[in-house]
Amino acid sequence: MAANNMRHALFCAIVTLIISFPILGLSLEAKGVNITLSGAKTSTYVAIVLAAVAVFVFQIFRDTFMGALGKLPNLNPLAGREPMEQTKRVKLESWLLTGIVVFALFWPFLVSRGSVDLATLVLIYIMLALGLNVVVGLAGLLDLGYVAFYAVGAYTFALLSQYTGISFWMALPIGALLAGLTGMILGFPVLRLRGDYLAIVTLGFGEIIRILLNNWTTLTGGPNGIGGIPEPTLFGMEFGRRVKEEGNTSFHETFGIAYSGEHKVIFLYLIALVLAVITALIIRRFMRMPVGRAWEALREDEIAARSLGLSRTAVKLSAFTIGAFFAGFAGTVFASKQGFISPESFVFLESAIILAIVVLGGMGSQLGVILAAIAVTILPELAREFSEYRMLIFGAAMVLMMVWRPQGLLPVRRIQITLNKQG
Amino acid sequence: MSMLVLEDVHTHYGKIEALHGVSVEVNKGEIVSLIGANGAGKTTLLMTVCGMPQASSGRIILEGRDITNEPTAQIMRSGLAIVPEGRRIFSGLTVEENLHMGGFFTSKSEIRKNQAHVYELFPRLKEREHQRAGTMSGGEQQMLAIGRALMSNPHMIILDEPSLGLAPLIIKQIFEIIGHLRDEGITVFLVEQNAHQALHLADRGYVLETGKIRLHDTGKNLLENPDVQNAYLGG
Question: Which of A93, A107, A311, B184 gives the lowest tally of CB atoms within 10 Å of its CB?
């Protein structure tokens, strides 16, 4: 056992050396037309050796370390407790959600402009994650191309505003419906597939949409993107310093207050907040309706669900379409917030992050997904001071998270056991 | 009056033919048992009735309606219910939610009525109403699978190996319930490896061998048939 550990640790240390030496220890320098290979500073070599030693030590005591890590849930004061009663739990969850919303309403008046801007982004991710939660968490369809529908929503608004001068409020339902329609059209041929195959095909569709946007230069402007997307107005009041469109008035003049750039940011935030709440409520409603149960049933056992007369296509397609619809919703808000969009905003990494939010939050649980969206969006911002190690910290946090709570922050609970007293 | 008729049904999995022209008739209000060895095509026969996979030739008639080429969803909404092999309950859903799934296409008041009826048949399910179905014992899960099938007000119920992997005492209970269903006027088509009990209960029986019907008689006669005794009843 010990010898085995020793050999394994030695092997790992050597691998560390082999990997880090060429990357850190050697550097290419351009001298005129020639490129010369030179060694790094002595301190770098010392660091590499130290790293190898660290790996060696960790591997030798790995079982102890991982054992300690496994005991971590004991630090969680809730771990040992009995599961809460269903009704109590539901009540607590809705109170908590109401609390978050009320707090979120006052948030922009307490903090800086940058924080409000970030909070708007968080809300957009919440909308996206809630939508994907229907597809992945409830219906169990692994969709890796979700960002495509987000792009459809955003580009619908951008293109319509460019060519027809449509306003945000008109574009919002159109963008969402169009995204939903795209979801339906894409979903129809692929929903026969299951599991990994579905994941690969959706991944492909996500890329197709992005590449289409990138290469259809005459319509979408290609990689240059589309700019000048209008901001939302409040009953015909604009938030800019000067009124851009005929017939509109400006917010600060109507209310007789001094112009401030913050009004616009706060207004956008509040719109995103209202839309996120609407998204959450509608999806919550769906989850409690028979169709919500049908999604879960189909995820649990497809053959059994079909044997009860459920149409596989109809059930899956409804989940796919509703998920895409809310992605379109979020996309429209995103386009309006940024004022400029390009295909670069809709790369695969976005799909991956949204999926990570759903998984981290606990598949199928709304509150969990909301908390995870906040964490995943804010964490890289908080770690900004560490500049290039930002993503490393983010990754490490995710790994720890999965070790600590493999079912997500707040997994869906359904267990309720009431024991009758005997005798 | 026949409930379900299969006329010379052939079923293929890709190029392989699993059923070579099977004809079966189930009359209203009967219990009909289908017995056969592993791989004889029992489950294939049942699944063909449900339209997954569809029959490649022949005709299937349910209550006078030709359902041979109808999609599964439509067949399963027209008075037919199946308790699939291996129970296939929704293990992540609660017992109550499972039952509600069974009554997906009926009204709310129907669901309430049928749910009460299922709890009457299986008092155990009532006790476990809010428990996750996957945490129950095999026998309870089988009860739930039968209860779920009853939620859609079926005229006919198909059971695929309901005794699979259950304790003898539970099997006895399940078979009692199946007898009770017939008394309520539900036609039962029962597929079993447990030939002895299945034939005892059945009005008529079919013996399926490698995709063909070998024998067909009343349950009692089949029990006494020396060939059946040798092959399926352990001598």
Answer: B184
